[in-house]
Request: fold
Amino acid sequence: MDSKEVLQQYIVGAMKSQSAIAELEKKLVDTSDFLKMQEAARSRYVIGFIRRVVQFKREEASAKDICLNIRDLILILGRVKLTEKLYTVVKEYGTEFDLVCENDLQVSCLHHIPEWLEPHQYIKDVYALRHDNGIELETESSGDAILATHTGFNAYKSFEQKVAVHTALNLPNGHTLLISLPTGGGKSLVTQLLASSSDGLTVVIVPTVALALDQYYAAQQNLTNGTEIYCYRGEQSEIERVEIIKALKDKKARMLFTSPEAILKNSELHRILDNAAKSHYLTNVVVDEAHVVPDWGVFFRPDFQIFSILLKKWKYESEGFIRTFLLSATLSDDVVDTLFALFGSDGKNAQVRCDALRQESRFYFHSAKSRKEQIDKTIEAIKLLPKPMVVYVLEPREAKELQKKLCEFGYKNIPVFTGETKEIDRNTILTGWKNHDFDVVIATSAFGIGVDKPDVRTIIHACCPENLSRFYQEVGRGGRDRLPSLSLFIPYQSRYDSDGDVRRALGLVSKRVLTVDRAVIRWKGMLSNPAAMIDFDECVLNTSATPSTMTDEEAEYAGNRNVAWNVNLLLFLHRTGFIDLLDANYVFDKKSNPPKKYYTVTIKLLQPNILSDDDILTAALTEPRAREYEAQMVGYRIMSELVSSPKALCWGRVFRHLFPLSREVCNGCPADPEGRITSDDTYKLRTDPEIKLPAAPPAPRLGRNMGSFNEMIISRPSTGPCSTEEVAVIAEKASQNNIGAFVVPSRLADEIVYNGILLNYEEFYYAVVHCPYLFAKGVVCIFDGDTVTNFTLYKNLGKLDAFGYRKILYCNENTIVANGGKTIREYSDGYPIPIQKF
Reply:
């Protein structure tokens, strides 16, 4: 049954809601081609409809909510037949939603598109789930024994994912690796294989509970070798918590998903991980969705940046043993710099960058001349544009006001998610959003990070984000199923009103960087606080210390925001070389009134003479503060120009300016309504990873066979194409000799199982130039092509000589590999051996 047939079975009562949803969820698994992607999308719409009907029966959704949902359902699937009760609801309330009641309980929908949105084709594309000719599905890359042994997969999603995985697995101790793969590109597989193939513990730091649980369940499902996986979070039973602590103490846990807060605020977990670092049980630390860290400091969850202090201590106490991995999608240069400043390893940082701009979004822009127009247009768009939908506003107050307005119109099932949302409500909304319980969510930038919801069709900005990066990241939460999505940007613009959205955005930017005077006052406040402990050049500072400019009343109620500013000041002083950060500990002081929650940070004064003199410190901080402010202003200026002149430049070019490693992509914007998609490279490794690995020592038998040479021929008696069985024997022997890479013709790549990286010829030609470190453990190359192919293979193998990496060639000794008809036996300086000796 397809999705519409399941819908009809549910409508007539032949299938209960749970059975229908279970049947539809089967269609979400395979999205290997566009037809299956479209059917998966239709299935999600039907799941959403069924859930809305259940909510309506429970009075959790209103008649307007159900009509809003039915409108989208019909525009996606076509005319539907409803139950008598739903038909009655539509008859009473449906006209507002362009729903038309026909004979025999049939309902159709007139496709009304707001006149102020041009071109209309964008909206039609989304409802048609139309795929674009320029959008290509990723080409799978052959798997290997590592993938097959640890997971249920037999192929990598892409060559880029394969490179990311093997680079991570072979990263030397003490190094930091930043990996960017496009959304849906399979970053989580890197984490999973790190954990399952390492002897110690991999700690995965995630920004939201929803993402932690998503990844926890995905890891449990994907890893098939009994890896012990745990998720430590706030909302869990004491039994679960005790089980996790025991597994960590017994050193049986291999993978732990958690948050910075959980580590920092739980003294027992903190202590266990401290000991794990010292004993080398803690092997890998992964920071997922790493691009959020620079933004989540001043206004929201400074714990992420505090965690960088703890990680620095762990690295020191492990004597450079711990490896760090930073995972994200597209990244701007300033974010990369910040991430390496926080989590990097001096002289040991590397990147696997596969940045790619999203191809699914079509961009609408409408300038509202009043706040009322902005709200009215937003409400109209909520009714008439495709769902699921996220509506972003700047402040929690505005989110609640918009929700109240929608309630007045009769909507009941539209939640608000902001930084002020309580933890229990936060989890309920995130889970419900993922499970199709809501068609619309009103949110601030706190919402959407790492939420695995592929079918968001519209993102509305009823505000002006403070920088282009935030705007792009939020727009990128639409269309993750590779089908079209919409971005509607509705800023309120006024030349005279200081409350205009662009000016308000500037206010947010200005608040991100302390003025020099405020920085000096805060520094003095922490240093002179009675709780500060000073021992020569080492100090333990209380981050709840208030600046002298605060009144007693303000100081009494100064909370997380004050702590966040102090933390950011310490990080700024660290970045600029004035202090070193040694340790951080969480304190919950219940005795104070009101109770205080803060961090104590142990620092070392690197320039005490400057730090002890207010005037000298003011002068010293002026230039670095100006640089940081200017870095913040770059993204704001681009955003401001986009608002003032939306048709001046193709938005794809604007985004590429922010993300210079990506290729220009636009599927339609105010400046370029027809869109443009620049053809991309076959392999999308944007920069060469700066990793240098020495040649690994050979296995004893291989060492005896090769002697002092770096090249060896395994003599093949016959000529012509190799059989699968023949190559399988070589692969098995190469695995036994711990050779890291195996190169085969494309026709054999899917037939061979190899305990290392398996590459076809084209992948090898690329890798040998851009990531030669993949061959540090040696390479076996199967020759069975024509003369030109053999010549190209041998020439590319020669590029490894510069690194001293071992090359084993399986071929007939008379294979021609050079001009003038020279055979490989004449050209090679290695010994030929029979296969039996290998």
